[in-house]
Amino acid sequence: MIRLPQLQTIALRGFTLYRNKPAIEAVFGSGVFCLAGANGLGKSTFLAALSFGLTGIAADPGRSFRSVDEYYRHSISYSEDHFSGRIRERDRDGAEISISMELAGHTYNLTRNMFEPQELRALSIVDSGNQSVVKVADEPSPGDLHRLYADAIIEDSGLSSFEQFAFLQHFVFTFDERRHLLFWDQRVASQALFLAFGLDPERVREADKLERAVERNASQARNLQYQATTARQRMEDLHKRVESAEDDDPDVDLVAEFDSLTAASRSAIDREARLRAALGDAQTELASKVAEQIAARSDYERAFESRLQGSGLAAHPVVRQIIESGTCEVCGGSGSSLADHISDQIRQGSCPLCGSPAEPERNPDESAKQLREADERLD
Hints:
alpha+beta
């Protein structure tokens, strides 16, 4: 199950863009938080700062989405100067964002400078109930704090990677008019739907990598096909030149070029065949992984439902009350043999009150075994 953070407070300091109030604080309740205002007042910057504070990256509107890992990796260098122009040079060192949020029973408090994507200036993670420290590091550097934060997010959210958390924050939880809508981009929508419908985050990450590999192999195959076509055209031109030569002996250099192009063409064709085979294997593996995940989840749900319904007659409130109290609620009779009598009736497949045939008790050990086996297939 994926768990998502709930924001509590956010504080921006040193934002030159907000001239009248460069230090801003906001408190988030359990309801909807609305941010309204005219164009140019900094609403998009506020959202970008929030996403940067949570993930350490800002969205590059000029970069298309290829995969979750590539999006995060390519956004790091862009994010180092994303807020230049919104923050004066003399305020760069003091420009910070502080965020407080709840996730999986833990309270996160973090502070990040707006020009340090992979670093945190402060971090504390405590148990929300007793305020005891959950995550600590001995004399950590700013980079260590960021890595500690990323590891804690993965553990508490149930996601497979911090890159997946950044993807959800950038493409699902926030939006402004300069970005693509979620369902305008098929690759973005696929990743979001995989996670939304409860597929194992690690399987989702693996599927994302396989899909990217398929795309790269397909691109290389197209390039090689173009190279092979070009080489074939040049070979045909050479044939024409040889046939039209006035001298009976073709030019030695021309023959050498012909042989070289022939070898290059064969090599390109061989490489294209190998890449097409790799592409087919990757597509088959991707389809197989998705099918396995769907089948395993279906088996798990059936086993879980069977486990819940497996209590039968013994779990009925009337029968359970008679067994626990040792007194029949119908006739008032009592005695130590009453519970044994009822248990015998249930084992024989009869209702202990009227004697009618009933479904025998399911074996709890067998249903538990089925549930464990289905769960292991999902791991």
